[in-house]
Amino acid sequence: MEKTPRGTSVGVDDPYEFAGVCDYLTGDGNCRYAFDHYEHDPEFARERAEDDYECPVVDPESDWSWADCPQFRSRNRDRECVRCGLEEKRMAHDDERPLLEEHHLSYARDGERLTHEITVYLCRWCHAKVHNSWARITDDASPEPDAVAELEGRRSREYDELGFESAAERYGEDE
Predict the structure, then answer these.
(1) I need a surface site. Which of 35, 98, 139, 160 has the fewest CB within 10 A?
(2) Which structural domain, as residue segments, surrounds residue 65?
(3) Do 147 and 108 lie in a common domain?
(4) Whose CA is closest to 125, among 94, 158, 106, 150?
(5) Cα separations in angstroms, 68 against 63, 101, 130
(6) Which InterPro entries does this entry report, sorted A to Z (predicted)?
């Protein structure tokens, strides 16, 4: 199983199994990284410019995979835990700790520079299990009772805020 630089588990054997489409891929199959960030990797940008910025991974005639692209990045945008399915519930104007945390699946190996960012969301409880034990992201898991209680508490406060209360009721009448 893949490990972090501190030696804790990331919960997967192959991070690319969880990678989606590259964040830099445009809808028409072009590489936005080469166009927008050419100064970071001029050689890569020149190669993509020679091919009209076409992404070689999505080219049906190419044998490239996401792992072959030096600028690949895939960050999960779904706001639910990929392990247990707990959904995020953020309260506006509140400092509460989020229910979900970004979990990195890829790290630099043997002191090498990290080139691919692959991240998913895990709830705080699953995140701790994955890093502190042999729990895997692919485990058949249900949300922890504490996680469900926290989520329901946030929903209750949200519904309380949606209820109508006149200013006179809220602040009391001074008459």
Answers:
(1) 160
(2) 20-71
(3) yes
(4) 150
(5) 9, 28, 27
(6) DUF7097 (IPR055523)
CA angle 84, 4, 55 (to 5 degrees): 80
User: Nearest-5° angle of CA 139, CA 143, CA 146?
Assistant: 135
User: Domain check: are 53 and 33 in the same one?
Assistant: yes
Q: What is the pLDDT along the chain (175 residues), one digit of tens a residue?
A: 778 877 788 899 888 888 889 999 999 999 999 989 999 999 999 999 999 999 999 988 899 999 899 899 999 988 999 999 999 988 777 788 899 999 988 876 555 666 688 999 999 999 999 998 889 999 999 999 999 999 999 999 888 878 777 778 778 765 5
User: Residue 97 and residue 94: Cα distance in Å, rounded?
Assistant: 9
Going from the C-alpha of 109 to that of each of 36, 48, 112, 165, the distances in angstroms are 28, 27, 5, 57
Record the tokens describing residue 63, joined without a space: 């044998």
Residues 84, 160 within the same domain: yes
The owner of tokens 């991974």 is 57
Total domains in the fold of the chain: 2
One domain, residues 50 and 9:
no
* Contact in structure between 54 and 48 (CB atoms under 8 Å): yes
